[in-house]
Design goal:
The protein has 161 residues and is an alpha+beta fold. The protein contains 1 helix and 9 strands; from the N terminus they run H-E-E-E-E-E-E-E-E-E. It is rod-shaped.
């Protein structure tokens, strides 16, 4: 007489459980990587927005101190992006743009010339335009297991890529 089998064997249960665990772990890794990339993209967009705002202050000659505007200086320090007219006085903004786990580094301070908004630098006490092929870079990195990096490039004419 043949018995009808009802239920699962221990091996079948172990295989099904293992497959389920592997799928859940893969999904968690994907979600973590996706969230990290989203955070990185969000920080990049925020920085680009602030750099554009600083350049627009230079082009439109806006100076809260009322003095003649020669340039707008932008720099990063301890996660803060700051911009101010002529490198002194009242700041346009000082915002924290690097949340936990995100590192922001700039290879040099940005100086946008008044009227044109082009990149300039100090040379022997005066402002001079940077070379046409010179590019300032801002590096944004996240290290939460993803190790991804984004780079913002500002060319000599002040355009942001």
């Amino acid at each position: 007489m043949r018995e009808d089998k009802k239920g699962f064997t221990l091996i079948e249960l172990l295989v099904a459980t293992t497959v389920f665990i592997v799928l859940v772990l893969g999904t968690l890794v994907y979600i973590n990587n996706f969230n990290s990339r989203q955070k990185l993209a969000s920080v990049r967009q925020e920085i680009v927005s602030y750099v554009r705002m600083a350049r627009n202050y230079a082009v439109s000659l806006q100076n809260p101190d009322g003095d003649e505007l020669r340039y707008v200086k932008v720099d990063f320090e301890d996660g803060l992006i700051k911009a101010w007219p002529n490198g002194v006085g009242t700041t346009y903004f000082a915002k924290d743009v690097s949340p936990a786990g995100v590192a922001v580094a700039m290879d040099t301070d940005l100086w946008f010339s008044a009227y044109e908004g082009k990149l300039v630098r100090w040379d022997n006490g005066e402002l001079v335009p940077v070379d046409a092929n010179e590019v300032a870079t801002i590096t944004i990195a996240i290290g939460q297991g993803v190790g991804e990096t984004m780079i913002i490039k500002i060319n000599a004419s002040g355009l942001i890529n």
